[in-house]
Amino acid sequence: MALRSSLIKFRKEFKLKEHSITITRRIVQIIAFFMINYVILELIFAINLLAIENLFKVVPFLHSPRNSLSGGAGFLEYIFFSLGEGIFPFFLLGILILIIIFSNRIVCGWICPIGTIQDGCAAIGVKKRKTLKKETHEKLLKLKYVPIIFLSLLFVSLAISKLFDPNIYTVFKESLNFEPIFSGDRPLGLFSLSEFLFYTLPNQIKTSWETGSILPFFSNFFLLLVYIFYFGILIGSIWYPRIYCRYICPFGAVATALNKYSLLKLSRSPVKCVGRTECGKCETACPKQIRILDEPFEFFNGKGECDFCLKCKETCPYKAINIKFG
Ligand code: SF4
Ligand code: SF4
Question: For 97, 162, 239, 250, which has the most beta carbons within 10 A of its beta carbon?
């Protein structure tokens, strides 16, 4: 009897059913995090997981760019590497388009390890969450197109240099490695938070550990700026959830542009929804600051920003938000 009443109390306090989507999402995120970065498991448990390498090799976006077992790139990086080699990445772009058409931005909301880390940061400040002014937020959303346009131009130029002069191409490609600050043999380190979190930072910690000094962190002024910038983003995401996804992530820019065409959507029932004045809980819960109630009832996606975390659906007290396909 006592056990039963404790269980009832537990269920009342933790409202498991009400949070079932978030709980499921967190489990998926944690599993995905370790699948993508299984080198972390090797470090923690001193085991060798080389045998499972081929399981993930076929799906490049499941690789952390700097997983020591990976071929050396994440999904977007493979696309840019192909472009730089003068090969148009039909296959990878095709996969990317199909993933987003059929699954919306589930990859961003449920799988991406950078998203998981930001969600972890946001959980610290859940009671102190802030929102930016609508105009400021909308202006900043456009920022994330700057890195993707810059990278596209950079890698198309690299491909053109290959076509006209192999010597210029070699020097150009080597200059993109940012050696010795980043990985040396793999370009794009400067533009990648995952590079920073899963390669640069662990290597710096390892060096500091081995030398017993924190000086390696201050060995290069440029690197220090990169640390300040990326740590700033992580700290910022305590108050502004998914700040990197919203305003910086190059993959986010591509996903936002494609998300408008996704078949998997969210809709809001005009009969059940009581509106912003009476309720508005979905908008308060949305980590991407999407003005759900300004969008049509038929479907909403925050102009492509929605990453399908389903927090709005879970929070709605009137069960007004539904998933639809087609
Ligand atoms: S939480 Fe539900 S009822 Fe409330 S405003 Fe949002 S959709 Fe409407
Ligand atoms: S609109 Fe809903 S599903 Fe989309 S990001 Fe916001 S809370 Fe998540």
Answer: 250
Q: Which residues of the chain have pLDDT under 70?
A: 1-16, 38-45, 47, 49-74, 177-192, 195, 199
Instruction: Identify which ligand lies nearest to the alpha carbon of 305.
Output: 2
Tell me if 302 CB under 6 Å of ligand 2.
yes
- State if residue 137 touches ligand 1 by the CB under 6 angstroms criterion: no
Per-residue model confidence (pLDDT) at position 61: 47
CA-based end-to-end distance of the chain: 49
Q: What is the pLDDT of residue 120?
A: 93
Measured in angstroms, how far is the CA atom of residue 235 from the centroid of ligand 2?
Answer: 22
Q: Is the CB of 264 under 6 A from ligand 2?
A: no
Query: Which of 266, 281, 312 to mutate for ligand 1's pocket (most ligand atoms within 8 Å of CB)?
Result: 281
Residues 20-57 pLDDT 10s: 999 999 999 998 887 777 666 666 667 676 666 555 54
Can you tell me whether residue 142 is helix, strand or coil? helix
Cα 207 to averaged position of ligand 2 atoms, centre (Å): 40
Judge if the beta carbon of residue 318 lies within 6 A of ligand 1: yes
Structure confidence at residue 55 (pLDDT): 55
The domain segmentation of the chain, as residue ranges, is 2-262, 265-326
> Alpha-carbon distance 240 to 128, whole Å?
9
Residue 240: CB atoms within 10 A of its CB come to 24
**Structural contact between residues 187 and 173, judged by C-beta atoms closer than 8 angstroms:** yes
- The closest residue, in CA terms, to atom 2 on ligand 1 is 316
Q: What is the pLDDT of residue 182?
A: 45
Q: Fold for domain 265-326?
A: Alpha-Beta Plaits (3.30.70)
